[in-house]
Amino acid sequence: MSSTFGQSTVLGYPRIGANRELKKAVESYWAGRIGAAALADTAAELRAEVWQQLRNARLDGIPSNTFSYYDHVLDTAVAVGAVPARFTRLGLSALDTYFAMARGVDAEPALELTKWFATNYHYLVPEIDGETTFTPNPTKPLAEYEEAQRLGITTRPVLVGPATFLLLAKGADPFARLDELVEVYATILNVLADAGVEWVQLDEPAYVADRTPAEIDGLRRAYTRLGELAKRPRILVATYFVEIGDALPALLDTPVEAIGLDLVAGPGNVRRLAAAGPLGGRTIVAGLVDGHNIWRTDLRAAITVGATVTALADHVAVSTSCSLLHVPVDLSVETRLAPELFERLAFARQKVDEVVLLGKALRDGTAHVPVPPQSAPEAWHNGDVRARLAALTPADRERGAYPDRADAQQARLNLPELPTTTIGSFPQTAALRRARADLRTGTIDDSTYAALMRAEVERVIRLQEELGLDVLVHGEPERNDMVQYFGEQLDGFAATDHGWVQSYGSRCVRPPVIHGDVSRKAPMTVAWSTYAQSLTAKPVKGMLTGPVTILAWSFVRTDQPLPDTADQVALALRDETVDLEAAGITVIQVDEPALRETLPLRRADQKAYLDWAVGAFRLATSGVTDATQIHTHLCYSEFGEVIGAIDALDADVTSIEASRSKMEVLDDLATIGYRRGVGPGVWDIHSPRVPSQQEVVASLRLAAEAVPARRLWVNPDCGLKTRGYEETEASLRHLVAAAAELR
Ligand code: GLN
Ligand code: ZN
Predict the structure, then answer these.
(1) 415: in domain
(2) Among 93, 274, 637, 640, which one has the highest count of C-beta atoms within 10 angstroms of its own C-beta?
(3) Could you give the CA distance from residue 342 to residue 339 in angstroms, rounded to a whole number?
(4) Any idea of its EC number (predicted)?
């Protein structure tokens, strides 16, 4: 790369390795099986592989510092010295301090983990407090740049930009410390320039959300100051995930040389660019290839957009819309996908080729652009599903009046006051994981596997009876993942063999692909639920994943509006609820932990989203009679903007995370007039800590101030699959005893 930006680049690349080598290496390091040097070797190999691959693909602009042992926001925290004293105090090596922040140690809980904008990637929330002294620590970006140089590859170091970094941080008004932090970035840029770095990329995705005038001013101030440095690399400020707002004119007031815009999720960026006036010789890094989904780019359409941008800017480079972190590494290893699906997909490697091709096409004309495959093959269409969708009426999303439902349900269930229940999963033991692995490798057959799972269900039912819980669950032992499990059973979905995407740290997920009209081949959960119900006289909750969450954790087709796909999934779930009911299941929970996470970043887009999201949930849950009790479960505590939607879901009982937020969510629900059942979590299952009976009683007393006791349920915050049996039994015992004490 030279002083000009070049023709093609990507904003970031998967770092886990084609075979999740990074996951294996860091987990081995944590387990003490390999040392820091071996870990560093694997990391260097992975980086070299990516850089060489990008170079061989003839990409001009190759990013560095996009590798991370755990998380790039955490890396940036380290680079600016934002390591909380509670971790430096531990006196560990730099690497172990880093992992302590990421994962916690006995004495210190980890930094908080939260969703990276509207993706399923989680970053570690920087903690900024009075003790934080920002200090430049450019070791990692510098070392990676030099490592690539030694391979003969010139790279562009990437960091989270200072404004976004502070907007993502927690503490007392972190953003007030912007000017101070910018000086630290200034030093880092000096050091990088000294090493010969020509371009840096500073990511400012926070500026695609609504921002206050003060926050916009901060951005302008930050990049004016960095831009005016006498010695610095050229700066690309990258934005992504939606359309940039008032931040565009602010950035144009500064001397930054390049601005990255997402033209996939933010097509309106073209209009904004046109309205922005002269771009002053800046490079526009045009995100034309979707970094957040796995469909091949319609190259001709992308060229049209690219040409429009080219007419507006002196120089345009083609890029991905966001980092490729959010897609799997390589499609070419997927040998079991149907050909008509395979030819329509592109993973990270294939997307790089698209970027390069688009860059060339924009420069040289469009002669060599391959024609994309025709629209979806006929086999993916399902006339029956389409007809059902077309025939839907508002009545299909309505149940009877809640008071009637509540009476009918109580007449049937006869539950005590403060009924106790859990969220669905019980601990995933080593034996269960082994059984699943053995099934995959063919060591055991389907019937042996099913027998093992049935034995587990029986064990979990007996345990719950012994503990004295009121509404039981089957424990979900048969589920590999709450979305994948349904994806594997529904038509219109496909699974990949190696399509892993980093979710957080070493945790990777393999999202299914929704490519066609969705329909249910056969009942999906009825056999498990009815088996569990046959073992006990207590009600056993049926357990389904809701339409919004299924979409959020899949790669979704883009050839029809999202609400239609959501409704198709909802219809399949509706059929499942009706079958569960017919089979004698009286309580059904439909989980929507992703309802909050996929909320659009811009307020202007939120209502439309919540309308279809709520509509799909109601479609899924309104097929049953009044006497069947519908539960839902939502994770994460920041419900602010969705509180009205929680009410609109019209579930009979909503269980919700509340133990960390000290029951505040109940006041919010009371304020909007929520009148149905609610189960605020009284045990924070994200920690192995066992709450005492007194603590649970205290939480419930607090809850009862906001919600009348007759509508209050007693349950943990979330599913128990990541917990061990020891703390599970102890905590549930206290929970049941606390409910009994208060009755
Ligand atoms: N029913 C699921 C479980 O208990 C819910 C998980 C979730 O909320 N993420 O595991
Ligand atoms: Zn949950």
Answers:
(1) no
(2) 637
(3) 5
(4) 2.1.1.14
